[in-house]
Design a protein that fits this description.
Layout lengths: L2 H8 L4 H9 L1 H11 L2 H4 L5 E3 L8 H11 L12 E3 L27 E3 L4 E3 L8 H4 L7 H29 L1 H20 L4 H21 L5 H4 L7 H25 L3 H9 L2 H7 L7 H6 L3 H14 L11 H13 L12 H25 L9 H10 L1 H15 L1 H21 L5 H29 L6
Helix pairs in contact: 1-15, 3-9, 3-11, 7-8, 7-9, 8-9, 8-12, 8-13, 11-18, 11-19, 15-16, 17-21, 19-20, 19-21, 20-21
Length: 464
């Protein structure tokens, strides 16, 4: 008897599987809130050099700024420079014709970087890491690097959790992910320096990778309890929680404008997640591969009972489970090198890498850049989340009628055309630019969902 036959006896899709989806909804909601958190954490509000002694009268303040700050070529006051000496001629631009920044024309007032720090516009954000540690102007690269550090942690964590969950089980590693994400998130919110924040956010990304490996759509904790016929609908249904997290982040970001409290708000839900581990079932297939027949038997009986299948002790005898366990253990423990061991697997793995690069590049490239659409950051985030809902329906219908390959190719093509046409639209056509960005976001999310459905089905179970 194969494991698939066991799953057919106890029910491959029913209340038991839906209960699992509900239990694992929380990490799916939390993931996009953390992954897209840099939109708010690293936001750079309008700023200019700090000028002590500025008059309180606004009309006089304009003249004061004119005398202390040079102007950019577009007419705005410079964000990063001030005149070396006050009282310079008004309306002096930062650069002359053909002049590069740092060059000084004869007779033109000299400028210096802000010696006394910056003043920030707090109308949209009361505090971000950019305003906390002055990560602007010459230091803006550090601000942008925060996301890079975080996703580097995700990369390392994905490899580590993939190996460890196969060695020690899904439930244990899910508990590790919850606890470490909670602790590191709290430490990040209490950071006293940029270095401390960068390190803890990188480690948080490593911890959150456990969620992506174990409980993301068609992740291992669910895939091994689902029959083949219902994996598509379960995958699309599960991915809607990600969209819920994207939209919820817009609301939470709007209500909480301080970066420390915002980070706390998206981290503290890990606490009830830790308690939910008590009800999350372990993978029966993994238990059988480890020879833990009694534990697998208990979970299979629970699945049959919740799904209303009349399976008794005779229908799931320990002798039958022992035979399945022996067959599962015959398979050699895989390694990452097995992804490239045969020509067929090598072809699949290399193609998946290229596809996933395009999927992630388009999705996060759009999701993390919410500027220039004529809307504020909260409206854009909400709109980008809302457009993902119809994209899920598009994926479900297209996969059923056109198949995985055509759906994935079509959604990637749609995303590339939308973003390509957006590059051709002039900056004055805000409505067209916004419409194409939203359309591209919808296609990129559809490609993301399809890639999850497709990739997991391309590999044999032992490599999945």
């Amino acid at each position: 008897m194969a494991f698939e036959e066991l799953l057919d006896k106890v029910g491959g899709f029913g209340p038991f599987q839906l209960w699992n989806v509900a239990l694992l909804a929380l990490p799916r909601v939390l993931l996009p809130m953390h992954f897209l958190l840099p939109i708010f954490l690293t936001a750079v509000p309008a700023h200019r050099c700090a000028l002590p002694g500025a008059p309180a009268n606004f009309s006089h303040q304009d003249a004061w700024l004119e005398a202390h700050l040079p102007r950019e070529p577009d007419g705005r006051f410079s964000s990063c420079l001030r005149f070396t000496h006050s009282g310079a001629l008004p309306n002096t631009t930062l650069w002359g014709l053909g002049q590069s920044p740092g060059e000084q024309l004869e007779g033109e007032p000299s400028t210096v970087p802000c010696p006394q720090g910056w003043e920030y516009d707090h109308s949209e954000f009361s505090s971000t890491i950019a305003t906390e540690w002055d990560l602007v102007c010459e230091q803006k690269g550090l601000n942008r690097a925060t996301s890079t550090f975080f996703f580097a942690g995700v990369l390392v964590g994905a490899v580590a959790f993939g190996y460890l969950s196969d060695r020690f089980g899904r439930r244990r590693l899910l508990l590790v992910a919850y606890v470490s994400a909670l602790v590191l998130g709290l430490v990040s919110a209490a950071s006293v320096s940029y270095t401390m924040f960068a390190i803890t956010r990188t480690l948080t990304g490593t911890a959150l990778a456990g969620f992506t490996i174990i409980v993301m759509p068609l992740g291992e904790a669910e895939l091994e309890w689902l029959d083949v016929g219902h994996r598509t609908v379960a995958g699309v249904l599960s991915s809607t929680f990600w969209t819920g997290g994207v939209m919820l982040l817009a609301l939470v970001g709007y209500l909480i404008r301080d970066w420390r409290w915002l980070l706390l708000a998206v981290t503290l839900p890990c606490a009830p997640g830790i308690l939910s581990i008590w009800w999350v079932p372990e993978s029966a297939r993994w238990l059988l591969t480890q020879g833990r027949v009694e534990d697998a038997h208990r979970y299979l009986l629970r699945c049959a009972r919740l799904n209303g299948r009349p399976v008794g002790e005779d229908g799931l005898s320990r002798e039958a489970l022992s035979k399945v366990a022996a067959a599962e253990r015959v398979v050699r423990r895989p390694s990452y090198l097995d992804l490239f061991r045969t020509p067929r697997l090598r072809h699949i793995s290399l193609c998946c890498m290229v596809v996933w690069f395009g999927v992630n590049f388009s999705y996060y490239g759009l999701s993390l850049d919410v500027s220039g659409l004529g809307l504020n950051v909260y409206q854009t985030q909400l709109l980008f989340g809302a457009v993902e809902l119809p994209s899920k329906l598009l994926v479900y219908l297209s996969v059923r009628h056109a198949g995985r390959r055509l759906t994935l190719a079509g959604t990637l093509l749609g995303a590339s055309l939308s973003l390509g046409f957006r590059l051709l639209v002039s900056s004055e056509m805000k409505s067209w630019s916004t419409a194409l960005a939203v359309l591209g976001k919808g296609f990129s999310e559809a490609a993301f969902t399809t890639a999850y459905l497709f990739t997991s089905e391309l590999y044999p179970t032992v490599l999945r």
